[in-house]
From TrEMBL:
Protein name: ATPase
Organism annotation: Shewanella cutis
Classification via Gene3D superfamilies: 3.30.420.40
Residue intervals of the ATPase BadF/BadG/BcrA/BcrD type domain: 13-274
Superkingdom, natural source: Bacteria
PANTHER family: N-ACETYL-D-GLUCOSAMINE KINASE
Length: 300
């Protein structure tokens, strides 16, 4: 996309960083998209160096897509919505980064997802992707649920579904758990023949690695495998309870975001599904709105 710059036009970049990927979009002040880039995961819980590298890589792609040079980062005011920065130490580490931008403002991916989903209005949002978490903002009140990271939390997420399936399969292969279609699925997916092969491929791996199994677990559940059904239903029940807790703030709108948002709907409580509204804009626009608000306040 081409770009015509004017002196009175400040450019912004909204960055959405999670456990699987980092997406960056450059906007004009009125929200017009100029360019977008996607890179690897950007969750400080799993490494600051990886996070910063992914932010820079997605920014460079977005700059090129906008018809700019990769050295033009200094023209952009950045809004970063990142997983993991709800941990104070990690937030401080990111804020202290010697970044390449004109200015940088940092908040959680939950916050920016909520801003984007409701185009700046109050509301609630649940992210169900590699991880899982919920957030609501109504008036002066806000509520954040989950976001504790893999493997301490993220129940109902892609990573959690993959982990629970792998745990059961290993028990089944040792003769301690109910036989399941998940066993053949996992062995085939990893290209191995036994439990040791599974361990070799999965032990110590990242949340995104386990999340790659989630669709297969859902497929097994939808095909009627009882073990897979129990895993998916347990995760979905948690997501439903998370939503009900967010509803105590009486948000006007509620949206679900992430790779599992749609496939999980069939397993959620009917009361929760009835309240789901479409997302009005992506998390990157929420990050841009956040940066624009912070930048304008700082320059008044």
């Amino acid at each position: 996309m081409g770009l015509v710059q004017t002196k009175d036009q400040q450019l912004f970049i909204g960055v959405d960083g999670g456990g699987s990927k980092c997406r960056a979009t450059i906007y004009t002040a009125d929200g017009t998209v100029l360019g977008t880039g996607v890179a690897g995961r950007a969750n400080p819980l799993h490494g600051l160096a990886q996070t910063f590298a992914s932010i820079e890589a997605s920014t460079h792609q977005a700059l090129l897509d906008a018809g700019m040079k990769t050295t033009d980062s200094h023209l952009l005011v950045a809004g970063l919505g990142l997983a993991g920065v709800n941990v104070p130490r990690l937030y401080k580490d990111v804020v202290n980064w010697q970044h390449p931008f004109a200015a940088m403002y940092v908040t959680t991916d939950l916050h920016t997802a909520c801003i984007g989903a409701h185009r700046g209005a109050d509301g609630a949002v649940i992210i169900t992707g590699t991880g899982s978490c919920g957030y609501a903002h109504v008036g002066d009140a806000s509520l954040s649920i989950g976001g504790h990271g893999f493997a301490l939390g993220d129940k109902g997420s892609g990573a959690w579904l993959g982990l629970k399936a792998a745990e059961h399969v290993l028990l089944a292969l040792d003769g301690f758990a109910t036989p399941t279609a998940l066993t053949e699925m996992l062995l085939s997916h990893l290209g191995v023949k036994d439990a040791l092969g599974i361990v070799e491929h999965l032990a110590g791996k990242s949340s995104s690695c386990y999340a790659q199994l989630a669709r297969n677990v859902l497929d097994c559940a939808n095909a009627g495998d009882q073990v897979a059904i129990a895993i998916v239903q347990e995760g979905a029940d948690y997501i439903s309870e998370m939503a009900r807790k967010l509803f105590t703030l009486n948000p006007v709108r509620f949206s679900m975001i992430g790779g599992l948002a749609e496939p999980l709907q069939a397993w959620l409580g009917s009361d929760v599904v009835a309240k789901i509204s479409e997302t009005l804009a992506p998390p990157e626009l929420g990050a841009m709105y956040f940066a624009q608000q912070q930048f304008n306040s700082a320059t008044v």
